[in-house]
Amino acid sequence: MLRSAGGASVSTLRLPMLHASPFALLRSGLRWLRREGDVVSAREPVAYVSVALSPPKAHTGPMPFAEDMSDLQVALAPSVGGVLRPQADLSRGGFQDVVSSFHWDEGLALGTLESAEETELFPVMLAGRRGFDAGEGRGELLSGWHDRTRAFWEGGREGPVGTVLSLGTCEQTGVFRGEDFAFLEWFARAPGPAQMISIPDERTVHSSAVLLQHLRRTPEEARGIAEAVHAWIGERIHDSAGYPAFLAEARKGIRRGRWPDGQSLLFALHLLAEVVGASPLLEQTELLTRRGVVDQGPPDVVVLSLGSEFSPHFRHRATGWLIAIHDFRLRTFIGPALRAWLKRDFEPVRRTVADVERDLGALSEELTARTGGLLLVQNLITTSPGDQVPNYSWLGDGFAECPPVTHGAANVMLSGLTRRRNLSMIDNDALAAELGVRLCPDRNHAARPLIEAQRGEIHHILRQSGVPGF
Amino acid sequence: MTAPARRVLRIFAKGNVDVRDSLLWSRVGDRIEWNGINEVLRVRHPGSIAKVRHETCSRLDLIPLPGETLPAPPVELARKLPCHAYPADMQHRTALFDAPADAVVFSLQADLLNMTMVRHRREGWLLLAPDTASWDAPSKDWLRRECESVGPTPLETTLGSLQRLVPAVQERLGAHVLVYNLSPVIPGERIHCWLGADDSLGLRVRRFNLALAELSAQLGFSVVDVERIAACAGADRIKVDLPHLTPEGWKLVAEEVVRILEERGCFDPPEGPR
């Protein structure tokens, strides 16, 4: 409702319509992201709440959002820009703003916005599936350790929902999750209804070979892998070599409760969780909408990094199980026991550009056949300000490993592959070269201007490809 | 008191806009915007100057080795054809091996960008026919009647030319060999899918640059990595179009040439008597 206040128009900001019937939708107190008098832009979230579903009496079946319920949030953003006047008593502070103990009272006045046009609040659903349910971290939007995060918005529109899945390495975190880690840059630019999903590479890196094997894995193969992991964990549990020493040190108050072997065991279990779970390429999701909880099919677009293809790969000798783990994680993020396991029970797999071409092509074919999804691959940045190799003969055997050469060859392969398959390429290399590679000195971790350019390019392709909601 | 002797570095530059604008001068309209490699030397090596001899290049395989004669159009015909910066009677000749040089500079640019190469239908010789829109009618008629387009230079042809030229320069002249690559970035071009399309020029440049790096590993010449220079500075800032850089860009390329020559010992103090 618009009313005039000294020449300015004032809209009341109301809690928008969301339903989860037959489940009751509960919310926490409001956490304001902007303050009294702030000038906010259209589609800029101004507040958020945690939400939860409460079952009707005598309900015994599965609950929607079972995997996301610990970290389910709704951010609220006005449809037009203006000056914000929040209502003060809706934020309770402390845990009242974290736990969901109030009913979702649709239409509740949350404040006002002085703006040129009437506005409504758009809800943005944010859902994080925890990697470990007890691993709580509810400080901000989508904070904590999640093995899958997603955002969904309708933007006041109806129609088919486009879903984009990011399965790349850390170079995609900034592009997809953005600086707020909650996909809000995408909400600002894509009208909706749209869903963005990000699955990180903390457990296994999502190369085409790893994804293809996951897609094609039979229940028998999954069981064989599970047995192999259980057998190794059994060995570790029974091998108590380091345990008494740890206890002795713990009694002195040192080591702070960290059990080195525990890191390895947890890592192995999380690798196993991917094996026995659904392939992210096929996984379906649930969306919280104005019409209730809606099931959404597999992703329309899957975005990969070409860099994933060249991270260290290992094949389990007995079962053929293929995993990929970043080399920096091998050095410091996993325990010595897991490294020893990799050495004993796995063999390293060296992948050539031709191998990658074969696997990406096969994955694209399989994805088209199974879901009709489009594969989008970010190519590699070839240049770094530190490269000054004018004479390649001085490199000797190192030539074959030299990034300008290896990355360049992979990029040329990928360009060729886009001619033959249902696959598109984001030319990160050209974008970085246009803007200057000082914005990405290590070839992977870019600064804001380059990330924005990459995001813009991906958005351009999504629109050109006719993905709904973008 | 006598002034200290100046060191003179003899550079033979066989190429087009990239080698000329970086090493000799870059002119925009009537104004010299970059005054070549000697601007860099004045600062970094005050006792040295470069004497740059420049020849345009129609294609690397049209540079003859000493004693070699390439199939060429008859002289009377060649003198009549309006080939502008690539005189038809000079396209199959070179002064490269005529005088000593300390460094010889080649470039991929001619092979990548000179798309108007034709072959004489009966006699088989090649000719670069640039800017034919400005040719007089009889020359155009002759071209249409007698010649056929050969299309872009195949990568293998370029690599073969360098495999022939580089050892010849090293053996005959004892000179350092530098080869310019090209930045593949075309400001504004962003192709994400080539389904059913021909190679973009940018992709063709990438293929050539990669192959050049491999050849450098085999033959030991230096690559003047224009691709890296443009990427580091930001192609949006220092590129005008595919082959042309801004004066700042040419300066960066000239600085890279000097850095390579430094690494190759071209400015080391002369060894004194023992």
Describe the structure.
In chain A, helix 4 packs antiparallel against helix 6. With 470 residues, chain A is α+β, with helices and mostly antiparallel strands. Chain A is built from 12 helices and 22 strands. Chain A is 31% helix and 24% strand. Chain A has helices at residues 171-177, 184-189, 208-216, 219-238, 243-251, 260-276, 327-332, 336-345, 353-370, 403-420, 428-435, 448-464, and strands at 2-5, 8-14, 24-27, 31-32, 39-40, 47-54, 71-78, 82-86, 102-103, 109-115, 121-130, 146-153, 162-166, 194-198, 285-289, 292-296, 301-305, 313-316, 322-324, 346-349, 374-378, 423-426. With 274 residues, chain B is an alpha/beta fold. Helix content of chain B is 38%, strand content 17%. In chain B, the strands form 3 sheets. Chain B has a 5-stranded parallel sheet, with helices on both faces. Chain B has a 3-stranded antiparallel sheet with strand order 7-6-8. In chain B, helix 8 packs across helix 10. The interface between A and B is large, with 42 and 46 residues.
- H and E order of chain B: EHEEHEHEHEEHEHEHEHHH
Cα-atom radius of gyration of chain B: 20 Å
Roughly what is the average pLDDT of chain A, rounded to an integer?
91
Find the biggest chain interface.
Answer: A-B, 42 and 46 residues
Distance separating the two termini of chain B: 25 Å
Helix content of chain B: 25-40%
Widest sheet: strand ordering of chain B: 4-1-5-9-10
Q: What structural class is derived from the secondary structure elements of chain A? A: alpha+beta
The oligomeric status of these chains comes to: heterodimer
Give a brief rundown of this model.
Chain A has 470 residues and is α+β, with helices and mostly antiparallel strands.
Note the topology.
The complex is a heterodimer of chains A (470) and B (274).
Chain A lengths: L1 E4 L2 E7 L9 E4 L3 E2 L6 E2 L6 E8 L16 E8 L3 E5 L15 E2 L5 E7 L5 E10 L15 E8 L8 E5 L4 H7 L6 H6 L4 E5 L9 H9 L2 H20 L4 H9 L8 H17 L8 E5 L2 E5 L4 E5 L7 E4 L5 E3 L2 H6 L3 H10 E4 L3 H18 L3 E5 L24 H18 L2 E4 L1 H8 L12 H17 L6
Parallel strand pairs in A: 13-14, 13-17, 17-21, 21-22
Antiparallel strand pairs in A: 1-2, 2-10, 3-6, 3-9, 4-6, 5-8, 6-7, 7-11, 8-10, 11-12, 12-14, 15-16, 18-19, 18-20
Chain B lengths: L6 E8 L2 H7 L2 E3 L2 E4 L2 H8 L3 E8 L19 H6 L22 E5 L1 H5 L3 E4 L5 E3 L8 H10 E3 L5 H19 L2 E5 L20 H19 L2 E3 L1 H8 L1 H4 L8 H17 L11
Parallel strand pairs in B: 1-4, 1-5, 5-9, 9-10
Antiparallel strand pairs in B: 2-3, 6-7, 6-8
Helix pairs in contact in B: 1-10, 6-7, 8-10
